[in-house]
Amino acid sequence: MSHAPLRALVVEDSLTVRRRLCDALATDPMIQIVGEADNGQRGIELCQKLRPDVVTLDMHLPLMSGLSATEYIMAHCPTPILIVSASTNRGELFKTYDALAAGAVDVLEKPRGDDSDDGWDERFVAAVRLVARIKVITHPRARLGLARGQAASWAPPPAPPLLAPVASGSAPPIHVVALGASTGGPSALVSVLRELPTHLPITILVVLHIDEPLRPCIAMHA
Fold it and tell me: What fold characterizes domain 6-149?
């Protein structure tokens, strides 16, 4: 019994990277590229029109960011999304975590153009096939994100303090705090990290289990 190929939409503003993504997907006869977009707004339009089985989405996009596109897609035409991003600094990692919290399924770092790219195309194709099998629904976090963009007066409730006060002499001082989460935990991590004071006199270790190429272990020093 034959199966229909997976229908993929590729959203990436760099023509060079987009060609590599499409060439990699074209090696799999069970994946059909139904559309390409070079900005977030066009990506949304094609997603609504073509109803693909999976979307590969960059975070850095003109007209509309990858995060905003994720929020819109998951609120209006829920589709499995694989974030393919080169984001490595702290601020951009937050945006990637926000996209996961808004309903994106997984994230894969873009190829670097060096020896670490060995096998990247195969990993990318495997990730697309895996993400396409995930059943997604209208995501409440995505609708909240859209509402936040439309109403500047809305703000999330304040998060509770990360560490409860410790009575003097009742416990040794804390020097290191470790936070860990799997694919379902990015929104909780983002909420906690955003509430940390600027000069925190401890070291924070964050471990996020998503995908090996993301380099998920981050150390934040006071």
Answer: Rossmann fold (3.40.50)
